[in-house]
Amino acid sequence: MKKPKLEAAGGELLTPMQLLSRAAVTAGPGIVWIALFLILPMLILLGYSFLTRDELGNAVFPLTVDNYVRFAGWDVLGYDAAYLIIVGRTILVSLVTTLFCVLIAYPLAFFIAAHEPKTRDRLMIFVILPSWVNLVIRTYAWMIMFNPSSPITQLAATLGMVGPNEGLYPSDFAVYLGMINVFLPFIVLPLYSAVERIDWSQLEAAQDLYATKTQAFIQVLVPQTLPGLTAGIILTAIPALGMFVVPDLLGGAKVALIGNSIAQQFGASRDYPFGAAISFLVMGLTLLVLWLYARRVGEKGMRDLL
Amino acid sequence: MFWLFFLPVMALLFAAWHFGLRRNQVRKASLGLSLTSYLAFGFLYAPILVVAVMSFNNSRFRLEWVGFTTKWYAKIFGDESVTGGLEGAQLLAATQNTLVLAIISTAIATVIGSLLGYGLHRYRFPGSQLTAWLMYIPVVTPDIVMAISLLLLYQVLRNVAPFFEPGMPAMVIAHVTFQIAFVAIVVRSRLATLDPALEEAARDLYASPLETVRQVVLPLALPGVMAGALLAFTLSIDDFVISFFTSGPDSQTLPILIYASVKRGITPDINALSTIIVLLTMVGVFLSQILQRNQK
C-alpha cells in the first residue's frame, strides 16, 4: 500500500486529510463567510444586472442586456451619452484627486522620514487619525467652511472667485477638496513605508556622479518609492470611483458621479437592475485592477495595501 | 477660477521639491519641505477643527459665529431645556444601535477573522492562495458596491428567511463581512513575524495542537488580534455607506443620523455630537496604534 504523502506544517507532519481538516477548522468558517457574503453577493449583482424593471419597480425576468445598452447611451428615447459623461467625469475626478494626493504626499512622506524614529511614528499617527473621523462629519465640515457667510467664501468673493451671496459649494472645487482631504492619508501611509526603506547611499552616489537634483529625484528616489506609490494610487483611485458621500454633499446636483448614480437607482429611481449593472462595472474594474496588481507584486507585496 | 486656490499649493510643492534634496542634508527636513508638510497637516485637520469650534457656537440655525456656549453638549447629555436640533430619544437610539452593531460584529469578526488568519498562515491547502487574495477585495472595493451587492443578496434571501429584512441582523452580517478581511490580514501579518521554532518547540515537548495554540500561538499573536479587533471596531463605528443601504427604520446608526440631519440642514448639536465621536474615535485609534507599535 502506498504511504500517504506527509506535509510539514509548524513542526508537525500531517497527512493530506489531517491538513485539510485542520485547515477546515481554522480557516473554514472564514472561507464559508466570505463565500456566502462576499462572493455570492457579487454573483447576484451580476445576475440582477440582466433583469428587467417592471412598472412597479420590481426586478423581473426576462433576461436582457438592456441595462448595459442603456448605460452606453441607447435608451428608448434615442441616444444620450449622459451616463458615459458621468463615467468620464468620475474618472477625471478620481485621477485629479489621486494626482493632487500624490503631489502632497511626496513632500509629507519625506518630511516624516527626516525625523527621529520615535517622532516618525507619532507623525504617522497624526496623518492617520483624521482618516478615522467619520467621512460624513469631515465632509459636512467643508459645507460649514464654504457656506456664503464663512470667512473663506468672503475672501474668495473679494477676489472675485464667487459672486456675492454665493457659496463655494456646491461646486467641482468643493468636491475635489473634499476628496483630496479624504484620500490623502491613504497615499501617505504606503508611500511613507517605502520612503522609510530608501537606500540613501544611492542618492549620494548619484550626486557624486554629478546628477542634478531632478535627475537624482526621478532616477534614484522615485523608483525606490514605486511599490508604496502604486499601493497608494490603488487605495485612492479605486475607492474614489465609487465615492458617494462627498459628491452628494459637496457637489449637489451639479457634480453627479457614478456613486451618486448607483445610489439613485436604489433610492428615488428604484431601478435595481440598472443600478446593479453600473455597480457591476465598477466592481469588475476593481477586481481587474486588484488582479493585475496581485500578479505584479505577488502576495507579499499586497501587504502594502494594509 | 477655483483652480487659483491650487496655485499656492503648487508653488509650495515646487519649493519643497527643489530645496528638499540638499546634498548631505537629505535626512534633515528643509524649510520648504517642513512648510508644505505643516500646510498638509493643517489641511487634514481643518474640517475636524471647524466642526469642533462650531459645536460651541451659540446659534440655532446660522452657520456663522455668534457667541460661545456649551449648551449643545448639555443637550446631548440630556438637558431638555435646550431647544432646537435633534430629539433626545432619536440620539439615544442611534448611539445604542451604533454600539450594539459595533460590539456584536467585532466579536464575531475577531473570532472568525483570527482563525482565518491563523489557518492561512499555517496551512497551505487548495484555495488558500485564492482566499488570501479575496481578503483584499473589501479593502479596495468602493463601499457602495459592497453595500449594493449585499442589499441584493438580502433581497433574494428574504424570500427564504425574514431574518434578512433590512435591520440590525442584516447590518451585523454586512459589517462582519468587511471586518473579517481586515482582522485576518492584520493577524496573519503578525503571525508572519513570529519565529516558527517556538511552535515547533512546543510540539517537540508533546503539547497537543490545541495546547500549542492556546499556550504559545495565542499569547504571541494577541497584540495582532487586539489590533485587528480595534481596527474592526473603529471601521464599524465609522461606516456610513454600508449601514445606510442595509439599515431598517429602527436601526439607524449615528453616521446615518448625522447624514440625515446634514441633508436637512446642519444644526449645532450635530457638531457637538460629531466632536464627541471624533474624540472617542481618536482615543480608540491611539490605543490600536500603541498596540501595533509594541509588536515591533
Summarize this structure briefly.
The complex is a heterodimer of chains A (306) and B (296). Chain A is mainly α.
Descriptors:
heterodimer; A: 306 residues; mainly alpha; MetI-like fold; B: 296 residues; 2 domains; 13 helices; 72% helix; globular; disordered N terminus
**The CATH homology group name of the largest domain in chain B:** MetI-like
Most extensive interface between two protein chains, with residue counts: A-B, 113 and 120 residues
Inertia-based shape of chain A:
flat
Q: Into which percent range does the helicity of residues of chain B fall? A: over 70%
Number of domains of chain A: 1
By CATH, the topology of chain A is MetI-like fold
Order of helices and strands of chain B: HHHHHHHHHHHHH
What is the structural class of chain B?
mainly alpha
Cα Rg of chain B: 24 Å
Cα separation of the termini of chain B: 48 Å
What can be said about the biggest beta sheet of chain A? Answer: 2 strands, antiparallel
Tell me, what is the CATH class of chain A? Mainly Alpha
- Can you tell me the overall shape of chain B? globular
Radius of gyration of chain A: 25 Å
Quick one: how many beta strands of chain A? 6
- Percentage beta strand of chain B: under 5%
Unreliably modeled segments of chain B: 1-6, 21-26
Largest beta-sheet details of chain B: none
What is the CATH architecture annotation of chain A? Orthogonal Bundle
Commentary on this structure:
The complex is a heterodimer of chains A (306) and B (296). With 306 residues, chain A is mostly helical. Helices cover 69% and strands 5% of the residues of chain A. Chain A has 13 helices and 6 strands. Chain A has helices at 16-26, 28-48, 66-72, 82-113, 117-128, 135-145, 151-158, 172-196, 200-208, 213-241, 245-251, 258-266, 272-301; strands spanning 7-9, 12-14, 52-53, 59-60, 74-75, 78-79. In chain A, the strands form 3 sheets. A two-stranded antiparallel ribbon of chain A has the order 1-2. Chain A has a two-stranded antiparallel ribbon with strand order 3-4. In chain A, helix 8 (172-196) crosses helix 10 and helix 8 (172-196) runs antiparallel to helix 11 (245-251). Chain A is flat. The model of chain A has no long low-confidence stretch (mean pLDDT 84). Chain B is mainly α and 296 residues long. Chain B has 2 domains: 1-53, no CATH class; 88-295, MetI-like (MetI-like fold, Orthogonal Bundle), CATH 1.10.3720. The model of chain B is unreliable at 1-6 and 21-26 (pLDDT under 50). The chains are: A mainly alpha (306), B mainly alpha (296).
